[in-house]
Structure formats: C-alpha cells, structure tokens
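Example S7 (structure tokens).
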C-alpha cells in the first residue's frame, strides 16, 4: 500500500465519530525516537547526573524484550524528572517540538491524520511516552485525544514514578480497548497504525490495522496476517549528498544573478536582468538540488495580472518555487531581516521588494502603502499572509495585510498552495533534500465587492481553502 491508496481507503470508507484512527507516535508519526531529544536537552543543560546517565545506558543496552524490561527502563528514565513541574515539562516539550521534533514529522502521516479528521473520525495518538513528550505534536496536528504513560504528579510536581502501567505492548492495547469502550467506538470499522513488533496486539484492536514503517518483527507479522504495509520516506539527518546538492544549488543562484545582470547591462534593461535572474536562477538551482516541481493550475499564474499572489510559507525554498511558477513581473513583501541576508538580500533589494518590520504594526502598515502603487503600475506582488515560516504543514492564521492591499489596488488575490517544501528544506535546516514539490495555483479571488467589516470572514474562508487543498490535493 502507498500513501495515495491509504488516503483513498480513508476517504471512501465509513465516516463519522464512531470510527476511530489510533496512531502510534515514535516511528509512525515522527521519524526516530522523540525521547532522545528530551534526554539530550537535559544532558546539554547539565541536568543529567553521571549515575543517571550510566543507569539509562545500562537499561537501554539490556534491551526491552519483555514488558518487565520496559517497565524497568521507564522507571529509570522518568525518575530523572522528579522535582520538575508539569508546567516546565510542557514548556520543554513545546520548545523541542518547534526546534527539532517538527522537522522529523512524516508529511505522509500528516496527510493521513488530516484525511481521518476530514472523514469525521475520532483521531487518537497512543504512545508509551509521557504526555509532555507528545502533547505539542498533538496540538499541532489538531488531535484531541492522547493515550500515554501516566506519571505521578503531586501539587503540579512530578514524583519521578510511573502512575500505573506504561502504554507498551499489552498496556497500549488495553488502553486502546478501554478508549473504544468508553467512547462507543466501532472497533471493526476503525483503524490502527504502528511501526513496532511490540504493537501487534495494539494493531489488532481494530478491524483495519496497518503496519506503518514496520521493523523486521512487525513486517513478518503483517505478512503472516495479511495486514497492509505502508512506508513513508525517511526523515533522518541529511548527509554528504544533500550538502553537495545544497552548495550546488546556492552556487547556481549566484551564477544566475551574474548572468542576469550581464544580460541587463547588454540590453540596458533592469527588467531583462530581473526576468533572467528569476527564470534562469529558479530552474538552475532547483535542477542542481535534484528538486522537481509539479504545478497544477498553471494558467491561473498568468491570466489575471497584476495580482496579489499569496502562499503558505514553510521553507526558505518558497521564493525560488514562486519564481519558477510566476517567472516575471512580480516583486515581494518580506520581513525586514531579509534585507541583510547575504544571499537573498541584495537580490530582493534589486527586485524592489518591500521589507516589513513584523514587530511594529504601525510601521508595517506604512511600509505596505507603496505596494498598492506597485500593483496599479502593473507589477504583481507575492506575500506570505502567515507572516513567518511554519515548522509544520499546518496553516497558521493569515494576517490582513495582503487582503487589504488587494482591496485597495482592486486586483484579485491568487492563492498559491505549496505542498512538501518543508520536507525538502525544513524551517530550521540549511540542507536541501532532493524530491518533488507540488504547487497548486488556484482560481483568482475577486475582492472588488469585499468590505472591511467582512474581512475576517473572507480570510477564514481562504484559510479553509488552503487546508482543504492540502488535504485533498487536486489531481489536475
């Protein structure tokens, strides 16, 4: 089974809250073991004692072949959290998610969870980890229900003891069966997803188990029981190949800038220089990085200009993708920090980009005023209405600036939806991965009849349009 088949199964299957989808966390929703990030955070902060480090390593080396082994391991691991407040641990979990764990989310898992949510299913994350380790991810994914290993808390402070049975092997299966009973879930029509052989009993609690990124043991079990096997693209640390491709891509941009400037001088035209840089630079840099771009609705990028092109912002790669799609006669609005970026800053200034101080609303509004004149003179504008890159595929709240500009200039808004750019170049990464990025240029939105009083309603509708497109990607 591939991801498209898995999504089709959900979309065409039973709908409603009585159907549930239970997802394991480590190895299923995120690549690797998220607990390592918590341990490393404490280690770097000097909060791990020599005794704790030795004990954790010894228990880890012993392995977890039985439930007794695992209970011994978590007893040692969570003992180190004694004396920490719940508030502190939630804060650490949120920080680690934003800085690290979000970059290890499988995009395919995100799509699959979204498909279950759109089907009205009750979505649950079930993990042997503590709630503090997975709550931030659950919030970002919009997952309401979380099953986790409970830790003892007294007056908001952890005692370092597990409060009951950990959710590993039979513990996770028991917790899932209890949830099915409590919430009136139709188990035979529900779904379970996990990667580990220890979760065979958990997977069997529903009628639609799927071995997801299975280890050797689960792969064997799934084949014996004829369960579907689903594999996602690995999200491990980029290697030498990615470093070489990244250097080549940046080199291609620099070379294209010089080529474009040369053509501009020969033709005595700033426009020729800009168009050449945009066309040559985007094509060359993406090719050298091994990145393919599939565009849906390309005609919408040309038929209604000038326009305000808005896009969902996940990656520093986004401007290059937009340059490939739009080609010429556009400029951008970006944060003021980009003006001093050593690579893109000079190019953005040459292209006439507007730099906005996001920390000062009054100055930001003033800076956007000339953009209306730019549109009226025939040059389109690209803006990321979220205001900043998102660490996940989730659509953040849209700010009003792009929509006000379109209303004042009386030009349409053209939504550009980008999928997978965060997988190719995540927010906190500097290395490009090869792969395919999908771009959908949607039908233009006429704002000529919009009123300021109704702006919030209109913006919410556009946000929903992005979410719907990302969940149910257009085929043609």
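Recovered sequence:
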């Amino acid at each position: 089974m591939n991801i498209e088949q898995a999504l089709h199964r959900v979309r065409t299957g039973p709908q409603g809250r009585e159907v549930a989808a239970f997802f394991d966390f480590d190895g299923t929703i995120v690549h690797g073991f998220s607990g390592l990030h918590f341990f490393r955070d404490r280690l770097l902060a000097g909060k791990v004692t020599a005794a704790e480090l030795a004990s954790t390593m010894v228990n880890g080396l012993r392995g977890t072949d039985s439930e007794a082994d695992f209970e011994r391991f978590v007893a040692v691991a969570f003992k180190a959290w004694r004396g920490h407040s719940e508030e502190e641990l939630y804060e650490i979990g949120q920080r680690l998610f934003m800085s690290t764990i979000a970059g290890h989310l499988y995009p395919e898992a995100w799509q699959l969870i979204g498909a279950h949510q759109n089907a009205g299913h009750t979505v649950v994350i079930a993990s042997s980890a503590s709630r503090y380790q997975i709550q931030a991810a659950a919030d970002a994914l919009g997952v309401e229900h979380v099953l986790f290993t409970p830790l003892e808390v007294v007056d908001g402070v952890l005692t370092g003891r597990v409060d009951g049975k950990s959710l590993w092997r039979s513990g996770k299966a028991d917790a899932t069966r209890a949830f099915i009973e409590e919430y009136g879930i139709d188990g035979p029509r529900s779904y379970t997803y996990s990667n580990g052989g220890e979760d065979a009993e958990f997977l069997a609690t529903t009628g639609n188990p799927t071995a997801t990124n299975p280890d050797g043991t689960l792969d064997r079990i799934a084949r014996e029981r004829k369960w579907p096997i689903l594999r996602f693209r690995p999200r491990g640390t980029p290697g030498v190949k990615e470093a070489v491709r990244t250097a080549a891509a940046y080199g291609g941009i620099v070379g294209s800038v010089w080529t474009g400037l040369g053509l501009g001088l020969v033709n005595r035209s700033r426009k020729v220089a800009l168009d050449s840089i945009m066309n040559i630079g985007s094509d060359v840099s993406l090719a050298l990085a091994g990145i393919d771009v599939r565009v849906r609705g390309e005609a919408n990028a040309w038929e209604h200009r000038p326009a305000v092109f808005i896009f969902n912002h996940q990656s520093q790669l986004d401007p290059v993708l937009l340059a490939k799609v739009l080609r010429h006669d556009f400029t951008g609005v970006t944060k003021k920090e980009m003006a001093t970026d050593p690579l893109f800053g000079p190019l953005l200034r040459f292209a006439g980009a507007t730099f906005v101080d996001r920390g000062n609303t009054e100055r930001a509004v003033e800076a956007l005023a000339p953009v209306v004149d730019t549109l009226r003179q025939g040059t389109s504008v690209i803006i990321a209405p979220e205001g900043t890159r998102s660490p996940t595929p989730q659509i953040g709240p849209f700010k009003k600036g792009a929509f006000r500009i379109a209303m004042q200039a009386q030009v349409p808004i053209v939504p550009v939806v980008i999928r997978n750019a965060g997988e190719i170049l995540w927010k906190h990464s500097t290395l490009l991965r090869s792969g395919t990025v999908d771009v959908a240029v949607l039908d233009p939105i006429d704002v000529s009849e919009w009123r300021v009083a109704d702006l919030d309603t209109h913006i919410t509708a556009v946000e929903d349009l992005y979410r719907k497109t990302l969940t149910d990607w257009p085929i043609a």
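Notes on this example. The two ends are 23 Å apart (CA to CA).
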